[in-house]
Amino acid sequence: MKHPEADKNHDGVIQFVMLRGENGHQDAILRTEYAKKAMKDYGLRISELGSESANWSAIQANNKMLGFIRQFGVNRIEAVLANNDDMALGALKALQDSGYNTGNPSRYIPVVGIDATAPAINSIARGEMIGTVLNDADNQGIAAVRIAVIAADGERVTESSIGYRITDGKYIWIPYVKVTQENYKSLLQ
């Protein structure tokens, strides 16, 4: 395991909980799938203790996280993954109310969100959340405008004409950007 300190109970497996967006929503499905894949690709053995939809809401995520804490015990949870930053912050509040993620390194559970919102970046700056992922709206917008202009001119949309990778002839993938203690300052404005 690349980061044995993440394995609080030293069983070689990271036990985590997942807070998903709206059930059936494509972003929730893909963010859940790829968050797990990223952990595995990083070399972690993982076990999902629980997974609940919190509908992109901090309040719902807080309630779901409190339920996970009651169900599994806070000491069994070794990581929290959330499909967006609002849910990550809701889960963080539940952990803080349980005495975690308030500055004591021995009482810290990594919390990760998605979207790189200002509140999440500020939470990373304070050492409360471990990270988020920038869902790069700037490059999404640039790609969309390039596609529209090229298509309006009657030209064929290609990787070279738009400057972004195309998958299956129809999907444009804008890479996510990992945001952690090492680089969050570059996103502060």
Share of residues in helices: 25-40%
- Strands, count: 8
Give me the Rg, rounded. Answer: 18 Å
Lateral strand order in the biggest sheet: 2-1-3-4
Report the mean per-residue pLDDT as an integer.
93
Report low-confidence residues grouped into runs of 5 or more.
none
CATH superfamily of the largest domain: Response regulator
* Distance between the amino and carboxyl termini: 36 Å
Figure out the total of helices: 6
Approximately how much beta-strand content do the residues carry? 15-25%
Classified by CATH, the class of the largest domain is Alpha Beta
Describe the largest sheet: 4 strands, parallel
> Which structural class best describes the helix and strand composition?
alpha/beta
Tally of structural domains = 2
Order of helices and strands: EHEHEHEHEHHEEE
CATH fold title of the largest domain: Rossmann fold
| CATH architecture label of the largest domain | 3-Layer(aba) Sandwich
Shape: elongated
Summarize the topology.
Elements: E1 14-20, H1 26-41, E2 46-53, H2 58-72, E3 79-82, H3 85-97, E4 111-112, H4 118-125, E5 132-134, H5 137-152, H6 159-162, E6 166-167, E7 171-172, E8 177-179
Parallel strand pairs: 1-2, 1-3, 3-4
Antiparallel strand pairs: 5-8, 6-7
Helix pairs in contact: 2-3
